[in-house]
Write a structure and sequence with these properties.
This protein is α/β, with parallel strands linked by helices and 363 residues long. The protein contains 14 helices and eleven strands. Strands 2-1-3-10-4-11 form a six-stranded mixed β-sheet, with helices on both faces. The protein has a five-stranded mixed β-sheet with strand order 7-6-8-5-9, with helices on both faces.
């Protein structure tokens, strides 16, 4: 009953998004946010509008769409409509603007969406991908000091990699800006970053997979693997968020979405070769460009897929947004998580429940 989802990609109108704004929000307001506890309503949604990126870090989204895992779990009563994005802030605009119901997204935009709506508009319902981001540069750069006077790219202002780079630069006592003693950070679409790197117009970028691997394939070297900055090398790269109102009105549909995601993660983990092929075919269908085998293989070794969102890392991630200048004040992330559906799905599959680290309740 569902046409292949990759043929149903739609774009988000810029005019509809402009009013939402890109700037990250401040701390949650004092008022109590609307409860996100699933209501008694069990009516499935007529449509679920799902967003994701054509990136390896979003492989569980790509796999689930291509293999019809989401469509099968949603059932014939709910139509799956998909949209693709290049970076998190644009997807946040779509969610807050009401043109998207759920989305795979980076941690920084997820926190910012929560802050911009005073803790009201979205809930984080699952993890998806861990690790898979690196600072890759021209091979002549072998130390942080050598970044002075260079241009380093990130996908978009305030996105997860933009925050990670700016925080790290601050820790290295490197100033951001123009001039020979500063590091210029430019927000550039990932495909354009690759082109500019090949032309020698940027020195590198802090990028998600497969783009870090694509620059490595073009001659870049890894200066910083973000895994080295986190305990046990584990940090959330991609999570799944949903509009709070949609969650309240259609908890059955949200649980079906999470079931589809868990199937996708299990498939990627148990059938990695097939997962690579499906992911690459999906990226080609969206971008008209497939990944070289060496790039695909490297990208998949740099990350892992898990529905655990690593909730305990989010207070630190909120601090990092302030350090990086993405938010003016630290966001209180209490109330961001709603893991009821996820833990129901995990326990039904014989997997341990994940811990919300107390962030499923208001602070």
């Amino acid at each position: 009953m569902h046409a292949p989802a990759l043929r149903r990609l739609v774009t988000v109108g810029a005019a509809a998004l402009a009013a939402v704004g890109l700037a990250a929000g401040c701390s949650r307001a004092a008022e109590t946010p609307a409860s996100s506890t699933p209501a008694q309503n069990t009516t499935p949604a007529a449509e679920l509008r799902l967003g994701y990126f054509p990136n390896i870090t979003h492989a569980p989204a790509l796999i689930g769409v291509a293999q019809n895992f989401y469509a099968e779990e949603l059932g014939s009563d709910t139509t799956l409509t998909t949209q693709t994005f290049n970076a998190g802030p644009d997807e946040v605009n779509a969610l807050l603007g009401g043109s998207l119901d759920a989305g795979f997204i980076g941690t920084s935009p997820a926190i910012n969406a929560f802050a911009k709506s005073n803790g009201e508009a979205i809930r984080l319902i699952s993890g998806s991908t861990q690790a898979g981001a690196q600072l890759v540069t021209s091979p002549d750069i072998t130390s942080p000091e050598q970044l002075k006077g260079k241009i380093i790219a990130t996908p978009q202002l305030g996105n997860t990699q933009d925050v990670a780079l700016k925080k790290w630069l601050g820790e290295q006592n490197l100033q951001i800006g123009e001039g020979p003693d500063k590091v210029t950070v430019q927000n550039i679409d990932n495909p354009r970053t690759l082109d500019l790197f090949k032309q020698g117009q940027v020195a590198g970028g802090w990028l998600p997979e497969p783009w870090s691997s694509r620059l490595v394939d073009a001659g870049a070297k890894v200066l910083v693997d973000e895994k080295s900055l986190w305990p046990d090398g584990r940090f959330p790269t991609t999570v799944l968020i949903v509009r709070t109102q949609f969650l309240q009105e259609h908890p059955q549909t949200v649980e079906a979405l999470v079931k589809g995601l868990q199937r996708s993660i299990d498939f990627a983990t148990t059938s990695p070769d097939q997962a690579k092929t499906i992911t690459n075919d999906s990226i080609k269908a969206i971008t008209n460009s497939a990944l070289a085998p060496a790039v695909l293989d490297r990208a998949f070794t740099e990350l892992s897929f898990d529905s655990d969102p690593l909730a305990s890392t989010f207070p630190q991630l909120a601090k990092d947004s302030v350090t990086a200048g993405a938010t003016p004040t630290e966001t209180d992330v209490h109330g961001l998580f709603e893991l009821t559906a996820l833990n129901s799905v995990r326990q039904a599959d014989g997997k341990p429940a994940v811990n919300a680290a107390g962030l499923d309740k208001q602070g």
